[in-house]
Amino acid sequence: MKKISLLLLALMLVTTACKDEKKATDTTEKEVVKTEKFVVKPEATSVKWTAYKTTEKKGVGGEFTSVKFDVKEGSSAQEALNNLKFSIPISSLFTNDATNTRDAKIKTFFFGKMLDTDMLKGTISYDGDKCSAALTMNGVTNDLPLEVSITDGRRVSMTGVMNLAEWDALDALSALNKVCYDLHKGPDGVSKTWEDVAIEVSTYLRDK
Questions:
Q1: What pLDDT digit, counting tens, does each position of 68-107 carry?
Q2: Residue 168 is part of which domain span?
Q3: Long-range pairs for 68-72 at CB < 8 Å and ≥24 separation?
Q4: Do 30 and 44 belong to one domain?
């Protein structure tokens, strides 16, 4: 009887220990889920754009190599992006132009003709499945609708199309076309710089 009682006692102790271990594991897992945070990091973000020239609408690509964000976190990618403020220095514009002349022309004859020529600023809004950026350029703030794709829960792609007329930037566009008149001619001999600019932002939301 003593042996049986001791055996039962040992089994009870082992069972209790396993239950306690499982509870501890479950609690730890819950704590990990609760503390997981999503933060947008500048070093993981790229801001690219495509402008267009000639009546054939030939694309000219470029990017801003620097972007700054206010410190903000969320329990999901959507929450971290919502109401996120950003700023982009115009000086970081880069087009990888072989002649090394295009960047200076865009900075001087496009952005240089605007108000607030140093910085683009904005705030991202994410509500349900709708996303936009309240972008300030040339002293004008307008909403830029964005299509958003989120993969792996953290990898984010946002795309949109700016119409420069909505930011009162057609005079600046005209100044750029004037200095690039021959370069923006197509086979038909017509020089044209288009009003729409495609925007693509990619980022990876890291854990805090």
A1: 999 889 999 999 999 999 999 999 999 999 888 999 999 9
A2: 37-206
A3: 68/42, 69/40, 69/41, 69/42, 69/45, 71/39, 72/39, 72/40
A4: no
